Amino acid sequence: MADPEIKSYEPHHESQSAAVTESRPVKAVLMAIALAFLAIFLLLPLIVVFHEALAKGVGAYTEALSSPDTRSAIRLTLLVAAISVPLNVVFGISAAWAIAKFEFKGKAFLTTLIDLPFSVSPVISGLVYVLLFGAQGLLGTWLKAHGIVILFAVPGIVLATIFVTFPFVARELIPLMQEQGNGDEEAALSLGASGWQAFWYVTLPNVKWGLLYGVLLCNARAMGEFGAVSVVSGHIRGLTNTMPLHVEILYNEYNAVGAFAVASLLAGLALVTLVLKTLLEMRYGAELAATRGH
Amino acid sequence: MEVRVVNVRKEFERFPALHDVSLDIRSGELIALLGPSGSGKTTLLRLIAGLERPTKGAIFFGDEDASQKSIQERNVGFVFQHYALFRHMTVADNIGFGLKVRHGAARPSAQEIRRRALELLDLVQLSGLEKRYPAQLSGGQRQRVALARAMAIEPKVLLLDEPFGALDAQVRRELRRWLREIHDRTGHTTVFVTHDQEEALELADRVVVMSQGRIEQVGTADDIYDTPNSPFVYSFIGESSSLPVKVENGEIWIADRPIGLQAPHAPSGEAVLHFRPHDVELLDGCSGCIAGTVAASRRVAGTRRVELEIGGQRQRVEIELPVDHPAAQKSRVAFRPRRWKLFPAA
Question: Which residues in chain A are closer than 8 Å to B102, comparing Cβ atoms?
Fold first, then answer.
């Protein structure tokens, strides 16, 4: 039996017709504006951060980073990310699964709710936690009676961070899962796989790049969050200061080298995230194209 | 494995998709569920598979009531219209998936799984492609991998949902012949869904014609084509023409003229006459015939289709004439259906 030729799946290039192509000077001006904008608002600040951090030499830089308060801030930031990112991965996958694969009442409402942290100012979300858990708050008396400390301590910071980074994983997975539909899972079940096996062998590999992408963004935000954390943290040095909060404190104390040294770490994180994100997008884009060809 | 569907009703959010459907599928049979979209054919297939649960009624696999069993316990091979191959797995891993997810002693060794996968790949004539990924295969190849994957679990029943629906016409015809061969060689009880009557009539031992959540007729291709039991089957399968008529004392009339057809058992009153456009007898004179004015004439392959306007109501019917028949040149044509059926007026 003759097979039709195996199709090759070349990346699709959009061909540009002459009608929508601008003239050379227009192109040059547009590119110059974009590049100038990038240079002034992104590249320049980045250079300044590293320049200021190293202004008094490498010695002062490493010394600034090894002060006990700074190290405690770094540890706390890592701890907060280590707790909030996995929790949001679990939540994000469950929410995306529920929204993409099932029909139920209130689905639109849930989708809107997931977006809420994006539309609310982080400071407001921090304040909500103060109103809820603070001494005069709704649950304050009860918490005090049971000796549970949330506000101005690590639990508060973790809660605020989770809230702010809530949407990242879910938003990434929902459209992906919706596009993929239920077919693969049904096929796995019909072949005898249990629900867990179907999830583990089929669903998760199908969304792995999207998931990784979401985790990356979620992590970057968890480590860099300022507003909400600032409200609930209490700024206790060596105890409840995360890296962004610590930068502010050092800066306010005219400790430029210290402030910029910590800031350079955050900037470094941003750069690493950016590179990984670009790599993922290249990979993830190919994956999506394959999905469409499928 | 013999499958019996007994008085099954299925509702989706109070909307009935199937009304009280019963069907006996014999062991080793290749059977087609044929109907337009929305007729409930896919719902019936998914109920047999266990992808849906019936609202009422039961489904038996042999003597066993399978209705309350999960899809995993039913051990059916399901082939999806859009293949649903696992895109991150190679062809061999796709085929071996059903064996890999088994537990304990039921799970063959990795070597054995691989051996079985290669064997099945050979059966579906794709040897040598085991390391490919689904995206590197053509549509026809993907569908064959999907079938091999479904057969790997040694299913009691093979269920195929529009298996060739997403393929182009030529590949479809080839795969059709190939599926028949595979079926004859392996002897699986096989149910497939299609909206393509040619596919159903050519491929299946028996065809189940469905419409609006009900089974209209079950029978061989000959039964279905030659003795349709409802106006729906008459018009859905093959070409058909229909005319409103009147029955009086066992004689069929159109307006004020008898047309020379006797229906001794039909009750008197309004009725609809159905016949095949090619199954007519052309007449010269007209005493007891259907006569009409030629309204349009088209050449279709080896024959000529003529559209006639009948009587004062200007009812239009189509009949087929040989290309060189003199009647094709006339403005009036008289004929009488050779084979026909009366149905009560709706």
Answer: 192
